[in-house]
Structure formats: structure tokens, C-alpha cells
Specification:
Layout lengths: L2 H16 L6 H8 L3 H7 L3 H20 L8 H18 L1 H12 L3 H6 L2 H12 L8 H24 L7 H15 L6 H21 L7 H4 L11
Helix pairs in contact: 1-2, 2-3, 4-5, 5-6, 5-8, 5-10, 5-11, 6-9, 8-9, 9-10
Organism: Acetobacterium wieringae
GO molecular function, one term: DNA binding
Keywords: DNA-binding
Length: 230
């Protein structure tokens, strides 16, 4: 393993185990067995590593969901992804804390704009005939910002116990916000059907790929393979 990858994998492990805020570069350098200057040489700031972690995590989950979902149903893909995301934060406390910290330092939306989730939003806006062509760019930007603004606010308040709200309730509020921001007709029966389909998909996914319930199983273990359960 080269020096950059050694630093990167060490940082990812420490961010999950100790928390992003509790992991200074000095700790990363010591654990990786490298000079402190090399950490900042390869990674100018901590959030570069954290954003990449989050993006890799999202892309891993999304790629596995695609094994079970129709490739031309972007709305179902997006709803299923968010359902899985909130389910995993309720299962894995390390992941829950990491997501909280990513929200606290406002890195969630940034990471999302660099990956496939943003492309799903983009496609849904492009397909929506209720949005004028001249407004699609602005609508897309506002939809992503609004959706993740709601996720950020509710996730932080729930984690800090400022409000009594479940992961399920956060998910429901986020989906309602997403429909509103994307100017999609909020049909109760449609949403109910999509969520039911998402639940079935996630149950099957986690039954066949139980490693996904613990982020450490694939996020920082070198050459980790997510194997389908036989």
C-alpha cells in the first residue's frame, strides 16, 4: 500500500471509530506511521477525506440497490436509497455519528453533488414537464439544497436530542420535501406504493448482503469484498 492510501485508510477508520471532530491529523499520522507533513501534503484539509468517504459510501449502497431496482425508475431509486440510508443510521451507531458530523460540518450536500444521487435529481427535473426548460437548472439546484437542508436540520436535532423524532419520521418528512422541491405531484397512494416497494427491496438487500449493515465492513478495510449470502 502506498503512503497516500495508508493515510487515507487510516483516516477513514479513525473517523468512524473516534468521530471526525475527535480525530486530528496528528492522530492520523501516528496511526499511519508517517510524518505529519505527509498528511497535509496528500490531503489539504480533513473534509476532503470525509467527503470522499461519504461519497464512496453512498455510491457503494446505491450500486447494490441497482441490483434490485429498475434502471429507468429514478424516483424509486432515490426513495429506496434514502430509506436505506436512514435504516442504516438506526442500525450502525458509528455510521449514525459519522452522518451527524457530516451534517454538522455541512459536508453532506457537497458529497452528494459529486455522485450519482445528484444525477437522479437531475434526471427527475429533466423529465418533469411541469417545470419550464428555462427553470430546470434553478429548480435542480434549489431541490438538492432544500432536500439536504431538511435532512441536515432534522438529523442534527434528532442526534442531539433537541427533538423527539424517529428515523422513520425524518424519512417521511424528507420525502415530502423532496416531492415538493422537485415539483412532483404528492399522490398519497403513489408515495405509499413506492415506500412499500423500497422496504421490500431493502429487506432483500440486507438479507443477501448483511455486511452492508456495518459500514466498517466495506468502507476502510483494504480489498474488502461484499459477498452475497448464499
Amino acid at each position: 500500500m502506498n503512503t497516500r492510501d495508508k493515510i487515507y485508510n487510516t483516516a477513514k477508520r479513525l473517523y468512524l471509530e473516534n468521530g471526525y471532530a475527535n480525530t486530528p491529523n496528528t492522530m492520523i499520522a501516528k496511526e499511519a506511521g508517517v510524518n505529519l507533513g505527509l498528511v497535509t501534503y496528500y490531503f489539504k484539509t480533513k473534509d476532503i477525506i470525509a467527503s470522499d468517504m461519504l461519497n464512496y459510501n453512498y455510491e457503494t449502497l446505491y450500486s447494490h440497490l441497482l441490483k434490485y431496482l429498475p434502471t429507468d425508475d429514478e424516483l424509486l431509486q432515490l426513495i429506496t436509497f434514502f430509506k436505506l440510508h436512514f435504516k442504516l443510521t438506526g442500525i450502525d451507531p458509528h455510521y449514525d455519528r459519522f452522518i451527524y458530523e457530516m451534517n454538522k460540518f455541512d459536508l453532506l450536500e457537497k458529497a452528494t453533488r459529486d455522485g450519482n444521487l445528484y444525477e437522479l435529481y437531475k434526471t427527475l427535473v429533466a423529465q418533469n414537464n411541469q417545470i419550464a426548460s428555462s427553470d430546470k437548472g434553478l429548480t435542480l439546484d434549489c431541490a438538492v439544497t432544500a432536500s439536504f437542508g431538511v435532512i441536515r436540520a432534522l438529523t442534527m436535532k434528532q442526534y442531539e436530542k433537541e427533538i423527539q423524532i424517529s428515523k422513520e419520521e425524518i424519512f417521511d418528512l424528507c420525502i415530502n420535501q423532496m416531492f415538493y422541491s422537485l415539483k412532483i405531484d404528492s399522490n398519497h397512494l403513489l408515495i405509499k406504493s413506492l415506500i412499500s416497494s423500497a422496504n421490500c427491496t431493502i429487506d432483500r438487500l440486507l438479507e443477501e448482503y448483511p455486511q452492508l449493515t456495518q459500514v466498517k465492513n466495506y468502507l476502510y478495510i483494504e480489498d474488502a469484498a461484499i459477498v452475497r449470502k448464499q
